[in-house]
Specification:
243 residues, hpI Integrase, Chain A
Length: 243
């Protein structure tokens, strides 16, 4: 995106100044672009694309865990399936709560409230701590897993009974992304947080709702996910009469 496109955004803002929703979206986008341009960033970095999984790719990723989950719930003595369940929970929680690798590693059993199906998320990198209600399926699986797991205060452990490192999570990510034929350029743990952001926007949540779930302090960090959802673009163009 260059200075000409910035001017075009400002023109759109003037044309739609009476529409609060469109104005907010455009104003935030303009501020972010101006900040990037002032820092002298190159065009390719200003308009960089985030890496995220499509709905079909994420569904395919989850399919690889289904059989392991079924066997685990049928017979918890089958220890070799325990780690498949652990891995599935890691991906589910990262997706449902928008968690970073280091935030997954730091999850403690006391953070999960079974009765309310909620997980307290300790955010890092200046993000805001929050509590997220899990889906029924994820809550049930997490409850079973915690009951079966050892006495450590951490939810997720390695085979050596130590908290998972960031490097360990990176390896898990590459392993399962490979199994699901996810492109190499998307094989990063942070792809899951980006996936959560894009999918939430695609489901029709507004920017403040997505900001809360992802734990962003600054709404500008949330804006990027509204650039990559066709449904949100259609809503905007519909208001402009350009369907």
């Amino acid at each position: 995106m260059d200075i000409n496109q910035l001017d075009a955004l400002k023109k759109k803002l003037e044309e739609n100044k009476n529409d609060m929703v469109i104005s907010i979206l455009l104003e935030d986008k303009i501020k972010e672009l101006e900040k990037q341009l002032k820092k002298g960033k190159k065009k390719r970095s200003v308009n960089r694309e985030i890496k995220y999984l499509t709905h079909a790719e994420f569904d395919k990723l989850m399919l690889s865990f289904e059989e392991a989950e079924r066997l685990f719930l049928m017979d918890k003595k089958k220890q070799k399936f325990k780690f498949f369940v652990r891995d599935k929970l890691i991906f589910l929680l990262a997706y449902e709560c928008g968690l970073r690798a280091s935030e997954i590693s730091n999850l403690k059993k006391e953070d999960f409230h079974e009765n309310s199906k909620e997980l307290f998320c300790r955010r890092l990198k200046g993000s805001r701590n929050n509590t997220i209600r899990l889906t029924k399926g994820t809550s049930r699986l997490l409850s079973n897993y915690i009951t079966y797991e050892n006495n450590s205060k951490y939810i997720f452990l390695s085979r050596k009974s130590t908290p998972l490192s960031r490097q360990h999570l990176t390896r898990l990510c590459k392993k399962y992304f490979d199994l699901a034929d996810i492109p190499k350029e998307k094989q990063h743990f942070h792809t899951l947080k980006h996936t959560a952001g894009v999918h939430l926007a695609d489901y029709g949540l507004d920017i403040k709702e997505v900001q809360y779930i992802l734990g962003h302090r600054n709404v500008e960090n949330t804006m990027i996910y509204f650039d990559f959802t066709s449904k949100q673009q259609e809503v905007l163009y519909g208001k402009l009469g350009r369907n």
